[in-house]
């Protein structure tokens, strides 16, 4: 791969990683609701999960869709259902603000069942496989920058994506945490999270209608 190709790949990774999408919207909402530290598992799940996805796509995983066309439709249904579930989770995560005032009392009573929690590492890893933007990014990167699907080339693409993707999505999480200075009431945080949930649902348009 030439220097020009490396530069083009790095630029593609940056633009696709830092622009709005389901992962970044969810991370910003989590940063605003739970803070950066509690969002780290979600953050790492996105970064590592996507790198693994690029590698598996690069070594020919998408050939399964050619062998079993129905698997594409199944993935599409799962994608829509899971995104709707995550949108619901985001919309109601602002309850954490209200519950924070009662956290100590609830811990004393041993009742933490109603406490909202950030998306976990494994949930974030799994989400990459039903994330339309992640599929687009992975397929484009492999088809353009590793068309031969040689393992070494695939690893290079995945490695560069990993190095650029992590700081890019971290910026969205930090932005969400900084928004805590503005989202100083439960009502403001609730409106913010409902907006993020709505945008996440709207991101389903390419999946459902295209």
TrEMBL record:
It comes from Thalassotalea mangrovi. Keywords: Cell membrane, Membrane, Transmembrane, Transmembrane helix. InterPro entries: LeuE-type. Its main location: membrane. One of its GO terms (biological process) is cysteine export across plasma membrane. It is found in: Cell membrane. One of its GO terms (cellular component) is plasma membrane. The chain crosses the membrane at residues 44-62, 151-172, 192-209. The keyword Glycosyltransferase does not apply. GO terms for molecular function: amino acid transmembrane transporter activity. The keyword Membrane applies. This is LysE family translocator. It is a multi-pass membrane protein.
């Amino acid at each position: 791969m030439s220097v020009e190709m490396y530069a083009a790949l790095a630029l593609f990774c940056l633009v696709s990683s830092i622009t709005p999408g389901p992962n970044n919207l969810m991370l910003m909402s989590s940063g605003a609701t739970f803070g950066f530290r509690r969002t780290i598992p979600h953050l790492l799940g996105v970064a590592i999960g996507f790198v693994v996805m690029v590698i598996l796509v690069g070594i020919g995983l998408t050939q399964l869709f050619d062998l079993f066309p129905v698997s594409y439709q199944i993935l599409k249904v799962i994608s829509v259902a899971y995104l709707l579930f995550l949108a619901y989770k985001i919309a109601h995560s602002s309850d954490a603000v209200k519950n924070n005032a009662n956290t100590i009392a609830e811990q004393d009573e041993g009742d933490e069942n109603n406490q909202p929690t950030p998306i976990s590492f494994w949930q974030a890893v799994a989400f990459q496989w039903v994330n339309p933007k992640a599929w687009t990014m992975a397929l484009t990167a492999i088809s353009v920058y590793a068309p031969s699907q040689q393992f070494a080339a695939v690893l290079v693409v995945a490695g560069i994506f990993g190095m650029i993707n992590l700081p890019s999505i971290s910026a969205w999480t930090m932005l969400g945490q900084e928004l805590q200075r503005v989202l100083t009431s439960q009502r403001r945080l609730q409106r913010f999270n409902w907006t993020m949930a709505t945008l996440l649902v709207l991101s389903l348009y390419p999946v459902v209608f295209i």
